[in-house]
């Protein structure tokens, strides 16, 4: 699954400029309807995995897709493990 995610990231980066230009044409209401429709068809012909909405947030250490902290880019489990080992500055083990 991690490799699929990396493949999607490469495709998104590869087609980002083309996708943006086609979307701009398709959403421009000053252009004729035929040209906008043609842009929509070309957009539909692009690979589905080149869409940024297909990307998932994954832990960079384990690849876990759930319980992901965006700011740290790791999962809650790795956050706890690294915190317990003292590898995250400012994080201390809590006990009460």
TrEMBL record:
<keyword id="KW-0699">rRNA-binding</keyword>
<dbReference type="Pfam" id="PF00253">
    <property type="entry name" value="Ribosomal_S14"/>
</dbReference>
<dbReference type="GO" id="GO:0003735">
    <property type="term" value="F:structural constituent of ribosome"/>
</dbReference>
<keyword id="KW-0687">Ribonucleoprotein</keyword>
<protein>
    <recommendedName>
        <fullName>Small ribosomal subunit protein uS14</fullName>
    </recommendedName>
</protein>
<dbReference type="GO" id="GO:0006412">
    <property type="term" value="P:translation"/>
</dbReference>
<dbReference type="GO" id="GO:0005737">
    <property type="term" value="C:cytoplasm"/>
</dbReference>
<dbReference type="InterPro" id="IPR018271">
    <property type="entry name" value="Ribosomal_uS14_CS"/>
</dbReference>
<comment type="similarity">
    <text>Belongs to the universal ribosomal protein uS14 family.</text>
</comment>
<dbReference type="GO" id="GO:0019843">
    <property type="term" value="F:rRNA binding"/>
</dbReference>
<dbReference type="InterPro" id="IPR023036">
    <property type="entry name" value="Ribosomal_uS14_bac/plastid"/>
</dbReference>
<keyword id="KW-0689">Ribosomal protein</keyword>
<dbReference type="GO" id="GO:0015935">
    <property type="term" value="C:small ribosomal subunit"/>
</dbReference>
<comment type="function">
    <text>Binds 16S rRNA, required for the assembly of 30S particles and may also be responsible for determining the conformation of the 16S rRNA at the A site.</text>
</comment>
<dbReference type="InterPro" id="IPR001209">
    <property type="entry name" value="Ribosomal_uS14"/>
</dbReference>
<comment type="subunit">
    <text>Part of the 30S ribosomal subunit. Contacts proteins S3 and S10.</text>
</comment>
<keyword id="KW-0694">RNA-binding</keyword>
């Amino acid at each position: 699954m991690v490799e699929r995610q990396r493949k999607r990231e490469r495709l998104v980066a590869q087609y980002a400029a083309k996708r943006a230009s086609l979307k701009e044409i398709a959403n421009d209401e000053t252009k004729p309807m035929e040209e906008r429709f043609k842009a929509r068809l070309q957009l539909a012909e692009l690979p589905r995995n080149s869409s940024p909405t297909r990307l998932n947030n994954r832990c960079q250490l384990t690849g876990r897709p759930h319980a992901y902290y965006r700011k740290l880019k790791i999962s809650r489990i790795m956050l706890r493990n690294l915190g317990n080992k003292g590898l995250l500055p400012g994080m201390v083990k809590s006990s009460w």
